[in-house]
Amino acid sequence: MGKQLRTELMTINMGPQHPSTHGVIRFIIKTDGEVIHECQPDVGYLHRSIEKISEKVNWQGFVPFTDRVDYLASMNANWAYCFAVERMLGTEVPRRAEFLRVMVGELNRISSHLIAIGATAMDLGGFTPFIQLLREREYINDLLEMACGARLTYNYISIGGVNYDVPRNWTEKVGEFLEHFELAMEQMNRLISYNRIFINRMANLAVIPREMAIQYNLVGPNLRGSGVKFDLRRDHPYSVYPELDFEVPVGVGIEGQVGDCYDRYHVRMMEIRESINILRQCIKMMPPGEIQGKVKNVIKPPEGTIHVRTETPRGDTGYLIQSDGKTSAYRLKIRTGSFTAMSVIPAVAPGLFIADLIALIGSLDVVAPELDR
Amino acid sequence: MNMTPKRSSFGTYLNNLVNGVTSMFEGMSITLASMFFRAQTIQYPDVNIHSNEELVKDYKGNLRGMPANYRGMLHVDMEICTACMICMKACPIDCIAITNVKCDKRTFVGVGGKKAVQTRAATRFDIDLGKCMFCGLCSLPCPTGAIHHTTQFEFVPDNLEALVYKFVTPQEAQKAEARAKEIEVEEKAAKAAKAKAEAEAKPAEPQPENN
């Protein structure tokens, strides 16, 4: 007597306060038992009107606000904004300042990827890697603190150069750290990268094919995880990157298919290796000299619009700035990698388990403040 | 999404089992080894972290104490402040409030070795550290190095008003204002005297030319 039971999809809210969403994001999930039928991200809980603030404060005064756009990689956020304003002004940045920018930017990229990897591992139930990676991040924080006096919101890169010169033995200290860090990364590989449980959990999960990644405008490690070899540092070079020798790692489906969660994780691991490589070259090439270009006290960029893109740990960060020749921006738009990474979740999530969604969010490395600005 | 393994047999099952168990022991060995490493955690309130030299007395790890350029609480050295208000204009969130009056001209050498001329004195120099975001934009353009960050970061009071730090006392402000009034009177007198002298000198000069 097969009496048909009426079944319906259950709507579940994941977040806004959820430990694995890395900030305040809400996912409205329609589930069929344990399987996700539909997943709609709901963003905007961390909106702080940073773009509007840029119209109220002067050009230099906006730099500390860019720290808050992406707090895990403030140096790169500073850099993107200052680079855009410099392009408007036509300012020449001294060579030493450029090398310092690359060095602090790459150190910050490492520390940001450490959080991304550690948080992914923690969301999947491995607490040890997170603690171990945060310990490594502390050493980077110490180095950046020596350079600028802050540990999270640096405000180090300024329009025209950098704000402070580094202490005399700073580059040697960075070299010492890299020696130690390479061994630590080897240990991390043993702990998570080669761990069969972790690999089976991440491989073949939430595959984003190459075409889909391009269609959804993924950027940075998420795009490269899908096998697209695109890195702004190499393809649209800025600063002193053309002089530096580095590889652009891409996902090759090392444990499963191209574009699965493990590939995105693996690309981040490889990028840390490349950052170490870049830092080693910078230590050798670091020239002496000025750290601040010629910039007036009151900046008034000429009228016009500019869009400048830089490669930050979460991908292509673009600053679209419209100036009307006054002491603050007429309009400023920030384009971040996390926002487009969110848009791919509704397309990939159907068919995943709820626990796998957490792995997907972790592998996309979404940071909530960058999402909402 | 195809989650099932390609070849499902007892052999692969055993293989997976062995792999899983060995990688678990691999992780455990790292955890065990780190038990014998030097502890890196700084037991913060028990040790002094304000400088590296202080820290190494009670701490054996590899982390460093705070550097001298740490951007902590703001402090203003009123001895060398020229009340030029550059810091006030540089602050993006307007947490510095300055008013100034005229004072006796004074020349001195600031922190950076730059010569500074003071013509105005502050009657009010308030910093609202409740608003401050410690970005350092005020200390960078300071011509004398009067406003600077200290390594002090423990300054939590029990009410918000106590976070507004006043660097000019009411007595000093009154003194400066009184002196400003005197200067104004003196200047007026000097101006009047000068005008008088010019007025006296002027008609005397053209006369010889007219002749």
TrEMBL record, chain A:
GO cellular component, one term: plasma membrane
Predominant subcellular localization, coarse grouping: membrane
Membrane-topology annotation of the record: Peripheral membrane protein
UniProt-recorded Gene Ontology molecular function terms: NAD binding; NADH dehydrogenase (quinone) (non-electrogenic) activity; quinone binding
Residue ranges annotated for the NADH-quinone oxidoreductase subunit D domain, each copy included: 123-303
EC number of the protein: 7.1.1.-
Pfam families: Complex1_49kDa
SUPFAM superfamilies, A to Z: HydB/Nqo4-like (SSF56762)
Reactions that this protein is recorded to catalyse: a quinone + NADH + 5 H(+)(in) = a quinol + NAD(+) + 4 H(+)(out)
Subcellular location(s) per record: Cell membrane
Keywords: Cell membrane, Membrane, NAD, Quinone, Translocase, Transport, Ubiquinone
InterPro entries associated with the record: NADH_Q_OxRdtase_suD, NDH1_su_D/H, NiFe-Hase_large
Subunit structure: NDH-1 is composed of 14 different subunits. Subunits NuoB, C, D, E, F, and G constitute the peripheral sector of the complex.
Protein family per UniProt: Belongs to the complex I 49 kDa subunit family.
HAMAP family membership: NDH1_NuoD
UniProt function note: NDH-1 shuttles electrons from NADH, via FMN and iron-sulfur (Fe-S) centers, to quinones in the respiratory chain. The immediate electron acceptor for the enzyme in this species is believed to be ubiquinone. Couples the redox reaction to proton translocation (for every two electrons transferred, four hydrogen ions are translocated across the cytoplasmic membrane), and thus conserves the redox energy in a proton gradient.
Protein name: NADH-quinone oxidoreductase subunit D
Organism classification: Bacteria, Pseudomonadati, Pseudomonadota, Candidatus Lambdaproteobacteria
Gene label: nuoD
From TrEMBL, chain B:
This protein's GO CC annotations: membrane
Region of interest (Disordered), ranges: 192-211
InterPro entries: 4Fe4S_Fe-S-bd, 4Fe4S_Fe_S_CS, NADH_quinone_OxRdtase_chainI
Gene3D superfamilies: 3.30.70.3270
One Pfam family named in its UniProt record: Fer4_7
Assigned keywords, A-Z: 4Fe-4S, Cell membrane, Iron, Iron-sulfur, Membrane, Metal-binding, NAD, Quinone, Repeat, Translocase, Ubiquinone
The keyword Phosphoprotein is annotated on this UniProt entry: no
Protein known as: 4Fe-4S ferredoxin-type domain-containing protein
Species this chain originates from: Candidatus Lambdaproteobacteria bacterium RIFOXYD2_FULL_56_26
Source organism phylogeny: Bacteria, Pseudomonadati, Pseudomonadota, Candidatus Lambdaproteobacteria
